[in-house]
Amino acid sequence: MKNFFLFVSLMGFIIFFVTSCVKDEFNVDNIATSDWNPNVAAPIINSNLYMWDLMNDYDSSEVFEEYNTNLIYLVYQGNIATNTMENYINIPSQNQSFSQLTINIPGGNLSSDYEVTHNYSFTLSLPNNMLLDTMILKSLDLNLHINHNINYPIDVDFSINNATVNSSPHNENFSVPSLSYDYSKHYNNIKLRLGANNQLSFDIKINIHGDGSANLSPYYFILSIGLNNIGFSKLFGYLGDYNLNLDSDTIKIKLYNNHFDGIINWEDPKIFLTTTNSIGVPINININQIKARRENLPSSSMTITGMPPIWSLNYPSLSEIGQNKLSFYQITKNNSNIVSAFNISPNYIDVVADARINSNGHSNFVIDTSRLHLNGRVELPFHGTARDFVLIDTLELDLGDSTYFKHVDWFMFKIFTTNYYPVDADIQVYLLDAQNNIIDSILPPNQRIAASGIVGPAPDYFVISPSNKLATNKFEGARKDALVNVRNALIKAKLNTTDHGNNIVKIYSYQYINLRVSAQAQLINPYPFN
After folding, report:
1. Which of 93, 194, 272, 487 is close enough to 228 for a disulfide, judged by CB 3.0 to 4.6 Å?
2. Does residue 208 lie in a domain region?
3. CA 61 vs CA 81, 163, 254, 332, 340: distances in Å
4. Domain for residue 121, yes or no?
5. What is the pTM of this model?
6. Average model confidence (pLDDT) across the chain
7. Strand duo 364-367 + 512-523: pairing
């Protein structure tokens, strides 16, 4: 990650400003049309850089926040979410054929209407051992198949008991024009109330219209029913006991993307687990594993402890349908090994979890859009120590062709810092050719670019006095001429908190480093204008 911790961005900043300003200053057209002076000096940067400036490429998964004490902390987040519950609960089609109904019409030839009523019931086969009181369905296909041998015209009234369609009692009336007949009806808003053990009952009335034909009793009437394409919007009752498979998730700790060596000892790292649950039933979460994992060499991993075996979540009651209920759990240094886990400088925090519906009675509910979110949040307060923490990164850097350098005898830049941070920064920028061979370096060896401010006592560890540092470098002769071959730069930053990481420090939002950069160049005299 470019420009990440304190001064990595600083050197990229310097490189681009120095090269762009020097190029402009030494442009042939500019010199030819101005009062020419063989020695040119100019300030390039005079700026206060706060932490938000120095770490300016964070994105939605990495952001600075600050406590009311102005202490800064980094936040990394990941989200694990279930599908909506309609993807977990699949109500299968229900099909039932009933025993033959025998009809005896008394008397002789039938010349008037004759009615036969009958009650049917059957048990719905529901998943996960559900025992429901009420089903509100957004989709249902009713299919009736009738076989009979009645030689009179008939029609049928069919009613599902205790069912409503758009708030009106359910009833279907239809003629049966043949001895074998199929009737179908689609519903997109039907409410079914079930009896004990998921019993569904309905009444059927057979209207036989006598036309004077012979009475051939006894007659038979056979009914088969199918409930298909069942899609629920709400279910009420005992919702069973079954697993909700949660996706594994990884929280990326981008701070360590370019980490090469050394360590940051975080005094108070935290992991917050938060759930939002709109499923109206008790749910237990089992965190199978939280693991800190380092992929940079040498790779390593460590399981983070501190989670309870079972985490019982809050859930909405019947009066809170459609609402989300929150549950929280915090992993800290007081209940886990999180400090040791972050001492391996992990690139990733892996979270593996599953959830289990644990219905406890008939007052539970689920709606089709109900779901469970599990959010993982890592907080790293800037409170601790850093010792020889090395970041390495590369960037493209083309210093141009010889046009910009052939009329320059030498050039030099100076970097002056006033540092209100409790951090020493030893930074080197290696200039590379197209094959990434080292041509030169920006700073002389072992020349510190920023020295830690003087830190006060605990518990606040305020910087009570800044430190000043001056760094210079001069390019001339073969060093200067070789810069035309620069195509890339490698930045190496070694960071130590006060006293080589032996003292605890804190970093606050109001702290900054004042950076002043100036450049000076000696042009070749006399200047060859032709």
Report:
1. 93
2. yes
3. 16, 49, 9, 21, 23
4. yes
5. 0.76
6. 84
7. unpaired
Please name the residue ranges forming H helices in 81-232: none
In the three-class reduction of DSSP (H, G, I as helix; E, B as strand; rest coil), residue 529 is classed as coil
Instruction: Output the pLDDT for position 105.
Output: 95
Size (the chain), residues: 530
Report the percent of the chain where pLDDT is more than 90. Answer: 51
**Of 183, 212, 238, at which residue does a domain stop?**
238
Question: What is the full DSSP assignment across 47-85?
Answer: EEEEHHHHTTT--TTEEEEE-TT-BEEEEEEEEEEPPPG
pLDDT at 444: 75
Residues 6+ apart with CB under 8 A from 467: 418, 419, 450, 451, 452, 453, 454
Residue 402 DSSP class: G
Cβ neighbours of 465 (radius 10 Å):
9
Query: Going along 149-266, which residue ranges are E strands?
Result: 154-160, 163-165, 168-169, 172-176, 180-187, 190-193, 199-209, 219-238, 241-244, 249-252, 259-266
Q: Rg for the chain (alpha carbons), in Å?
A: 39
Q: Strand, helix or coil at 291?
A: strand
Q: Tell me the mean pLDDT in the region 47-52.
A: 79
Within this chain, do residues 49 and 164 fall inside the same structural domain, yes or no? no
The pLDDT-based confidence of 54 (bands split at 50, 70, 90) is low
Q: Which pair of structure tokens corresponds to residue 173?
A: 């009336």
* Distant-in-sequence, close-in-space partners of 406: CB < 8 Å, separation ≥ 6: none
Q: DSSP assignment, residue 131?
A: E
